[in-house]
């Protein structure tokens, strides 16, 4: 576990960023947090402030601003030891209609972070958050890191481009960068556009769940706590420099099976609507995490039934407030 480190987190107000922030503050680190709190979805700033209010303000500094503007990094201490670059314009479907915006946000901000890393005096690790979407539809499963990359959405293209920049800065400047491909992350504080959150919200409001396609598509749902653990492990290990790792649960289930589990947890009657499959959606996500297990000691701990119950309780609580 990282302790007593000077750490920069970009996208600190987001789903994964807020959980990482909380964990690192619990362990006595000094954090610099950056987020532009854009209007892709509301509540991020309030969510992050609720977390920060539990800790001594001496242990963190929050910067509200956009990483597209390099000046935002001028005031960041160059003695930062670890950088977690999580900031990105998320959403596969959103990217289909906003390709230029997604490219600018996700690629330029990443280059700016890597350039900042070059001037840091004590940099030990930069961890770049990529996505399993870089693979596209699989040729074989489970997918290892060497599987061909065939992105089928602008979001996926932007993440693969970030990986190429990470590789470039590692090779040319010896920057200690690690890229992590996340698999269908879920859990408390999940974005409103994420499937599990949307499904639970529909159930709790006694509305029908809308399923794109026939529901047989497989997803490797990975709990946010396991992703946070993988992020921290990758920052601790020197042998992860210049490497790319899958972070998944390696236990995919179909969307139809997921829905069965959700209704069983909520103890509600099923209300389903099937609509046409969406462009950009892959058929299968299924991670081979042997490399992460071997080099990072990454082992996912939260299985889907347990994880869904914690998310349900969180959503039931926020809807009742």
- Tell me the helix content: 25-40%
User: What would you call the shape?
Assistant: globular
Beta-strand percentage range: 15-25%
Q: Can you name the CATH architecture?
A: 3-Layer(aba) Sandwich
Which blocks of ≥5 consecutive residues have pLDDT under 50? Answer: none
Mean pLDDT across all residues, rounded?
A: 96
CATH structural class: Alpha Beta
How large is the radius of gyration? 19 Å
What string, H for helix and E for strand, traces the elements in order? EHEHEEHHEHEEHEEEHEEHEHH
Looking at the structure, the CATH topology is Rossmann fold
Largest sheet: 7 strands, parallel
Tally of separate helices: 10
* Number of structural units classed as domains: 1
Please list the strands of the largest sheet in the order they lie side by side. 3-2-1-4-5-6-11
Structural class: alpha/beta
CATH superfamily: NAD(P)-binding Rossmann-like Domain
Q: Give the end-to-end Cα distance, rounded to a whole number of Å.
A: 34 Å
Q: Total strand count, please?
A: 13
């Amino acid at each position: 576990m990282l302790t007593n480190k000077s750490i920069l987190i970009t996208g600190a107000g987001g789903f994964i960023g807020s959980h990482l922030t909380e964990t690192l503050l619990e362990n006595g680190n000094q954090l610099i947090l950056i987020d532009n709190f854009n209007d892709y979805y509301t509540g991020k700033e309030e969510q992050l402030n609720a977390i920060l209010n539990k800790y001594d303000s001496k242990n963190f500094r929050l910067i509200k601003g956009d990483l597209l503007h390099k000046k935002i990094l001028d005031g960041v201490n160059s003695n930062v030891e670890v950088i977690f670059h999580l900031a990105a314009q998320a959403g596969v479907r959103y990217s289909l209609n906003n390709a230029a915006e997604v490219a600018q946000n996700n690629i330029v901000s990443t280059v700016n972070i890597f350039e900042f890393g070059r001037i840091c005096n004590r940099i030990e690790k930069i961890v770049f958050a990529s996505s399993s979407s870089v693979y596209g539809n699989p040729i074989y499963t489970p997918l290892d890191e060497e599987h061909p990359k065939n992105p089928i959405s602008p979001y996926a293209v932007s993440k693969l481009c970030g990986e190429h920049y990470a590789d470039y800065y590692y090779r040319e400047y010896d920057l200690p960068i690690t890229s992590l491909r996340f698999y269908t992350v879920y859990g408390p504080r999940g974005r409103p556009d994420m499937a599990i959150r949307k499904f639970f919200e529909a159930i709790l409001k006694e509305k029908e769940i809308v399923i794109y396609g026939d529901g047989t598509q497989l997803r490797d749902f990975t709990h946010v706590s396991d992703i946070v653990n993988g992020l921290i492990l990758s920052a601790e290990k020197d042998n992860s420099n210049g490497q790319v790792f899958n972070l998944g649960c390696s236990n995919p289930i179909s969307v139809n099976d997921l829905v069965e589990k959700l209704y069983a947890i909520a103890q509600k009657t099923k209300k389903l609507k099937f609509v046409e499959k969406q462009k950009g959606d892959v058929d299968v996500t299924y991670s081979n995490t042997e490399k992460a297990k071997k080099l990072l000691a990454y082992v996912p701990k939260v299985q889907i039934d347990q994880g869904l119950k914690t998310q349900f309780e969180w959503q039931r609580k926020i809807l009742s407030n």
